[in-house]
Amino acid sequence: MINNQLKINEAANYLGVSIDTLRRWDEKGKLKSLRAKQGDHRYYNLVQLEEFLTTSCIRLATKWARNNISEEPNNLFYCSDSSVFQGRLYKLRTALSKNKEIEPFFSLLISAVAEIGDNSFGHNIGNWPDIIGIFFAYDIEKKVIVLADRGQGVFKTLKRVRPELKNDLEALEVAFTEIISGRAPESRGNGLKYVRVIMGKNPVNLFFQSGEAELNLNQNNLMLKIKKAKKPIQGCLAIIKF
Questions:
Q1: pLDDT, tens digit, 9 for 90 and up, residues 57-90
Q2: Domains detected in the chain
Q3: Does residue 168 contact residue 155 with C-beta atoms inside 8 Å?
Q4: Cα separation of 171 and 236, whole Å?
Q5: CB pairs under 8 A, 24+ apart, for 194-200?
Q6: What is the spatial distance between Cα 158 and Cα 122, in angstroms, rounded to a whole number?
Q7: Which of 8, 41, 54, 239 would suit a FRET pair with 184, their CA atoms being 20 to 30 Å apart?
Q8: pLDDT tens figures, 223-234
């Protein structure tokens, strides 16, 4: 890399795609390379690649959560531990504080994001199936925040104290509606119930998936819509639109 410019092979490695994919994207105008004329070598600006990744955060998080291959996400979005997550959460808070449209529920939105992220770390300590940490990204312009982990999922953590739970759908409903207890690991239910109240009483939409179950919570509406997902994931995926 020279002066923040990457060769096509370096850019492909950074994005986690093949060189042929980058060439196709260039030709279709999806991600244009930097070159003076046809036939010159393709180069990519690092800032350009970071912006491209950010605008694709939902797709990237979903793909990472569903991937059968165990690998860390791009470092731009990877929070390997809670301290890294808190640092990036502070950056999100700073960025959103300038948005007057969300001023009435700004603190509650940040609190809900913090709860989801902390949930991932708190309920997987010492029990991460493969990748430790979470995917955390946001696109302020598109008003979207995404969090994902490859942890045990809601069903497995709640079944320790609610052995009668039969599947991901039942577990997701319990987690978002019932107060279970204040002791770990049971507090998962309490945390997501708190998230539901915040999302359901403000102009925010939430999509949440754990294992084979997915949930939609529409703005200013506490009613949960839970169904079986088309494709299961490992751990949890949360997409917040505000």
A1: 998 899 899 988 888 998 889 999 999 999 999 9
A2: 5-55 (1.10.1660.10), 57-241 (3.30.565)
A3: yes
A4: 12
A5: 194/112, 194/115, 195/112, 195/115, 195/116, 196/222, 196/224, 197/222, 198/105, 198/108, 198/109, 198/111, 198/112, 199/112, 199/240
A6: 13
A7: 239
A8: 999 999 999 999
